[in-house]
Amino acid sequence: MTAVAAPVPDDADLLDVYSRTVTGVAEAATAAVVAIHTRRAPGSGQQRGQTSGSASGFVLTPDGLILTNSHVVHAAGALRVATVRGEEYDADLVGEDPHTDTALIRVAASSMPAAPLGASRALKVGQLVIAIGNPLGFDCTVTAGVISALGRSLRASSGRLIEDVVQTDAALNPGNSGGPLMDSRGRVIGMNTAIIAGAQGICFAIAIDTVQRVALELLRHGRVRRASIGIGGQTTPIPQRLRRHFELPQSSGVRVLNVLDGSAAATAQIECGDLLVRFDGYWIAGVDDLHRLLIDSRIGAPATLELVRRGRRLSIEVIPGEIAD
């Protein structure tokens, strides 16, 4: 009796759920990920002598709106976008926001495959994520990992904190900047932005809820409107005797280092050396707290600023203006 050989299983049958999930997302999403090539005038690059670079982005709308990082396109003299289908387009900058490292560019196209967006507020630590981008010029590179932590803060190049940053161990390298971080359903839940040099598996993405909000502002105004009172300041400890005397709950405040001529602070007669401790009923323990409070709705709206000056606690009305980026 002749033995019948057992059928050799197809590789597709051997794929586990994890592998099928990653491959499915990669196949569906790669077409919406683009390579962004930049050219800068000599002397304007981030590194000495740098005149060109490449990074990643993803398609927001079929009519050619593309999201990427501000640091990718900042000071670029020319932008060119390449797709996996071999198409190439010149791109124009719609607007950028260095404070959240987000930029919106546009190409002249009408039927680009757009990446579906998810919601970062529903994310959980440990869930699967997939990153797609063009690290070091290697197009359409896919890496996978998990969400390592949520609610991180990351210092932008402007000095402001980017809030609600997603930490992941999905491998990122230079060139991944601006590419999408996706969930298991292929929805974008973050925009890859930074790594910790010298570390392994510590990478960061701007939460998509933040990116969407900023993109809408960039589309409307070409910038993100924020309020300003027109001071330069630094976070400084409050001496214990002042804390007890004025019953202050925080251990630090904002020391005013300079006041811009013609600013809201100058009009309110805020002085260098003043220690700001409260803004419109909110205690401020540092510069980052003040930045969080100076949102666009504060522009032109009177607010009460409480400060300590030469041993006296004062309340001053200030009317914030719009920050000039």
Question: Could you walk me through the main structural features you see in this protein, from its secondary elements to its overall organization?
Answer:
- The structure is a single chain.
- This protein has about 325 residues and is an alpha+beta fold.
- It contains 7 helices and 20 strands.
- It has 3 domains: about 100 residues, Trypsin-like serine proteases (Thrombin, subunit H), CATH 2.40.10; about 100 residues, Thrombin, subunit H; about 100 residues, Pdz3 Domain, CATH 2.30.42.
- The mean pLDDT is about 90.
Offer a concise description of the structure.
The protein has 325 residues and is α+β, with helices and mostly antiparallel strands.
- The count of domains is 3
The helix/strand class is: alpha+beta
In the CATH hierarchy, what is the class of the largest domain? Answer: Mainly Beta
**Helix count, DSSP H or I runs of 4 or more residues:** 7
Proportion of helical residues: 10-25%
Distance between the termini: 85 Å
Strand order of the largest sheet: 1-2-3-6-5-4
CA radius of gyration? 24 Å
User: Outline, from the CA principal axes?
Assistant: elongated
Hey, roughly how much beta strand do the residues contain? 35-45%
Q: Could you report the average pLDDT, rounded to the nearest whole number?
A: 91
SSE sequence, one letter per element: HHEEEHEEEEEEEEEHEEHEHEEHEEE
Given as residue ranges, the uncertain stretches (5+ residues, pLDDT < 50) are none
Determine the CATH topology of the largest domain. Answer: Thrombin, subunit H
Secondary structure tally: strands: 20
* Biggest sheet statistics: 6 strands, antiparallel, barrel
Q: Quick one: CATH superfamily of the largest domain?
A: Trypsin-like serine proteases
- Which CATH-level-2 architecture of the largest domain? Beta Barrel
